[in-house]
Every structure is written in C-alpha cells, then in structure tokens.
Amino acid sequence: MSNDLGSLLGGLLGGGSGRGGALLGALLTSLGGAGTHGAGSNPLGALLDTLKEGGLGEKTDSWVGKGANQEVSGPEVAQALPYQALDHVAQQAGVSPEEAADELARTLPQAVDKLTPAGEVPEGSLEDLIRQQS
To answer: Is 68 left (phi over 0), alpha (psi -120 to 50) or beta?
Structure first.
C-alpha cells in the first residue's frame, strides 16, 4: 500500500518530489498502521497528532489552515517523530534517518496543505482524497 500511496503523493506534489512522496507515503502507512490515534483509514490525522505531540503544533496548524505554511527543519521533524518510524521510513527508502527527515521537512508543509483544502483534516480514505486533489 505504501508504494501506491507514495506514488499518489508524488503526483499530488508535482512529480518532482518522487522520493518525498514515497517517504511521506511510508511514514503515513507506518503511523496510520499503528492505530493509536483512531484515524481509521486516514493516517493524516495520526501524523498530525504525532507532530503536534512532538512540539510542532503551531507549524502543523499553519499547514492545515488557510494561511501561509510555516517551514520546518529536518531536525525538527526528526525530533517530533518516533525514532522507530523515521528509521523504518529511511530504511525503506535506502537513506539515512537524517536525509529522510530533511526530505520530509521539505515535503510535509505542501503535502498537508494540499490534503486539507478546507482547512481541516478530511474524513475518508487518504487515497480517495489524493485522487480528488490531483
């Protein structure tokens, strides 16, 4: 599933972000699969909850909201995510956890912004949402 989700995210992000889409897809699958946040078939809520719990609440709120997106750094992403999730995503992509965090930092603001067009996390499957936005 993560390969399909990564491909869809890469398309949503303009194709040039292939690795970023793949990393984000793997991360969403990893966090969403844990089922700890009750996000159902939409792991975006679980990702946002995790980032908020990791100290990025103001930044994630800017990505979901309708205003300008605040930037985030790779070290901030690495600190906010569970190490096991970041390490797993990095291993799948064949990069270091630091490289994965840097790529996710570039990808997350734009991806979350596009996946929350109404200024809130939508209901339903993430794959369906991405297809609607593409």
So the answer is: beta
